Amino acid sequence: MDQQTVLFSNKSLKAMIIPLFLEQLLIMLVGMADTLVVSYAGEAAVSGVSLVNQFNTIFIYLFTALASGGAVVISQYIGRKKNDDAGESASQLLSFSAIFSILIAMIVLIGNEGMLRLMFGKVEDSVMHSCITYLRISAYSYPALAVYNAGAALFRSIGKTSLTMYLSVISNIINVVGNLIGVFVLRAGVAGVAYPSLIARTFSAVMITALCFQRKNEVLYRCKWIFRWNVDFMKQILKIAIPNGMENGVFQLVKVALSSIVALFGTYQIAANGVAQSIWSLAALAGVAMGPVFITVIGQCMGNGDTDAADHYFKRLTRITLLISSAWNLLIFLLTPFFMKFYALQPETKRLVIWLVLIHNVFNAAAYPFSGALSNGLRAAGDVKFTMYVSVISTIAVRLLLSWLLGIVLKMGVIGIAIAMVCDWSIRAVIFFWRQKSGKWKTFQVI
User: C-alpha angle with apex 24: 165 to 339, nearest 5 degrees?
Assistant: First the structure.
């Protein structure tokens, strides 16, 4: 316990948390800037990018789930002081991520138009043309995205989150500058925002992979491990990644279903929900940023066989998450009336946005630290099936069905959707908090 406490001092925790938070904030702000720039390419371009990004999110979550599985395994081997095994696991993660993402990219490139027409129906020809162009270029970047996530998993597992933050800064500068040139100088429309993303992601993938080979790292890639298939290491990674991927997949499908429900509520409610979601994403940053910290810290404690230290850090990290989330959600809510000045919305719509943000932020501060960040700690301990079952059942039985009941049957509209969302968080929060307190997670093994 004493050794682990020294290892994860306040200074070391701060060195992990702050870069992760700033990286997530930067990605969010750049995403908003991208939306603003692409709006100058015309409505068809905005619609095409928006629709394809919903599709791309599915694969982004898959690559993230795979990297999270790798991060758990790497962290546990580091905790056991088996840095070579951690390095071989990281190398295997790189190999599998590259192969998997190339296969996904090939499938999307071959069937892109058919997939788009299946999902989005008979949209206008100009919008479909934008969708096809943006998806084709996006698919080329899938391998770069997966390879970057693999490298980021390694550096986050050893606590060097500042490196991924610096890479994110440079990558996003490339992206924004490229978008400005592509849209305003080259007048390339959708391609003008798609190619900069491809270039930025490729830059990040190449740079982080090169850095992962550096011998000064306590855990590193080696060519002999990358090109030698190790079934045992991949089983360990996939044991975490597959349940996580299934959970995220169900969540994305439910989001699509909820979008269909929201579309029934009329223009002003649809607009309010869209604006509120952009503010929700900003408010959720604190809880999201803490997820990888739980994986690294709990993973290393469990790898070292020190369940007492893991228990200690579960409580400590949860307190930190609650504190940061509460302060951040309060700040975003107080700034919401200021944000509203930038939107050309009716007063009724603006009032609805503020109510939606209030509902979200209260529960994002109080419940999400348990339903989101803490659940990553349970996964890092190897308790992956339980978290998957609870999350999938709650997403469908609570979020989806309650949205239908409150939103449509009781005619509460988007307020009902928001209440269903926070009920989902609250139920998961209670169950995951109970699971952590029960100590059942101490009996699982990943490696």
Answer: 135
Residue 369: name the closest of 320, 410, 298 by CA: 320
Enter the pTM of the model. Answer: 0.90
- Which one-letter amino acid corresponds to residue 313? Y
Structure tokens at 377: 């700690």
pLDDT of 445 > 90? The answer is: no
Give kind and range of the element (H or E) at residue 342: none
Calpha distance 157→221 (Å, rounded): 14
Which tens digit of pLDDT belongs to each residue from 26-37? 888 877 777 778
Query: Is there a contact between 401 and 442 (Cβ–Cβ < 8 Å)?
Result: no
Q: What is the DSSP string of 242-276?
A: HHHHHHHHHHHHHHHHHHHHHTTS-HHHHHHHHHH
State pLDDT tens for residues 199-228: 999 999 999 999 999 999 999 999 999 999
Beta-carbon contacts of residue 210 (< 8 Å; ≥ 6 apart): none
Could you tell me the sign of the dihedral formed by the alpha carbons of 314, 317, 320, 322, in that order?
A: negative
**Cβ contacts of residue 53 below 8 Å, gap of 6+?**
none
